[in-house]
Amino acid sequence: GADGGAGTGAVAVAHPNIALIKYWGKRDEHLVLPRTDSLSMTLDIFPTTTRVRLAPEAGRDVVVLGGRPAEGEALRRIVTFLDLVRHSARVPHRAVVESHNTVPTGAGLASSASGFAALAVAAARAYGLSLTATGLSRLARRGSGSASRSVFGGFAVWHAGRPGQDTKAADLGSYAEPVPVADLDPALVVAVVDAGPKAVSSRAAMRRTVDTSPLYEPWAASSRDDLTQMRAALLRGDLQVVGEIAERNALGMHATMLAARPAVRYLAPATLTVLDAVAQLRRDGVGAWATMDAGPNVKVLCRRLEADRVAAAVREAAAGGAVHIAGPGPGARLLPE
Ligand code: 2P0
């Protein structure tokens, strides 16, 4: 914006993040408050770039995703998010939103994390909301829970906040912040075994898991221990323990879904083939640990120096799927217009 704060347009970029301790389950759907803390690494690949321009004459928001007008649920979620920004800023104007993803959308590759982190940063500036990084993380959370973590680069923890508070206190208590880490030199090898959109949205799958899975509460309780142990391992630079905890936390999350009624299964045959390759790497003495999200794709945590070897093994197992090597990436930020 050229008018010193209450700008009329802004562009922001954000990267996806991959959770090593997963977010799976809300305690408040409207405020997007999670049941457990989660911890992630923001990537240096697959950025989303989003421009928001105020349109004072327009009667409705216009949203263009990857060059196509948004409709249905995608449009509704973005308009609801803009309504929240308008309410906070006390500015009624509609907006034109244009967003470009470099990652397949809805394939469990965290497109909603980079998407809503970039939208939060761009919309806050365009509407003249002056927010700290913590405030931007809370705002991004309202669009998509995992987006709260993509506001920050590197490793970030998203606090669930304390349950049983009033709405205002609960909202204030749930945000992400950077996690201190020792020298890890980590890489995440991303194996895209299927780039198609998921059959069940993570929002619906989470709800079903919390409501019907007998394994949900035990996993949530163990996830709290996983977080404590992982924070300690990150601080002392112990990538092996970080990897082991990440893999068990992810498999446990998928177990909660498999036990839901009816079951939610994101893991595909190709997923298991890649998991076999990761196990073989470990038998060969290479540190490699897998994590999977709301889709069949596999992300393999390893040492940067061994990432090429891991990527080669994963590429062979992924049977034609694309394989990308990511490192820790930057937090969401404004770009010059
Ligand atoms: C995560 N996932 O921690 C977990 C692990 C997928 C599996 O956050 O409903 O798009 O918008 O808050 O953040 C995917 O769910 O869900 C997700 P909403 P979101 O990364």
Secondary-structure-based class equals alpha+beta
What profile does the largest beta sheet have?
6 strands, mixed
How many structural domains does the protein architecture include? 2
- Briefly note the CATH topology name of the largest domain: Ribosomal Protein S5, domain 2
Which outline best applies? globular
**How many beta strands in the DSSP annotation?**
16
- Give the ordered list of helices and strands: EEEEEEEEHEHHHEHEEHHHHEEHEE
Per CATH, the class of the largest domain reads Alpha Beta
**Which cofactor or ligand species appear?**
ligand 2P0
Portion of residues within helices = 25-40%
Strand line-up in the sheet with most strands? 8-7-9-6-1-16
Average pLDDT rating: 95
CATH architecture of the largest domain: 2-Layer Sandwich
Rg measurement, Å: 19 Å
Quick overview:
It contains ten helices and 16 strands. With 337 residues, it is α+β, with helices and mostly antiparallel strands.
Structure description:
With 337 residues, this protein is α+β, with helices and mostly antiparallel strands. It has 2 domains: 9-182, Ribosomal Protein S5, domain 2 (2-Layer Sandwich), CATH 3.30.230; 186-326, 2-Layer Sandwich (Alpha-Beta Plaits). It is built from 10 helices and 16 strands. The chain has helices at residues 72-89, 111-126, 133-143, 147-150, 167-173, 202-212, 216-236, 239-258, 269-283, 307-317; strands at 9-14, 17-21, 26-28, 33-34, 38-42, 48-55, 62-65, 68-69, 94-101, 155-158, 176-178, 186-192, 288-292, 298-303, 322-326, 333-335. A 6-stranded mixed β-sheet has the order 8-7-9-6-1-16. A 4-stranded antiparallel β-sheet has the order 2-5-10-11. Helix 7 (216-236) packs antiparallel against helix 8 and helix 9 runs antiparallel to helix 10 (307-317). It is globular. Ligand 2P0 binds at residues 19, 22-24, 32, 38, 112, 144-146, 202-203, 293-294. Residues 189-317 form the Mvd1 C-terminal domain. Belongs to the diphosphomevalonate decarboxylase family. This is diphosphomevalonate decarboxylase. GO terms for molecular function: ATP binding; diphosphomevalonate decarboxylase activity.
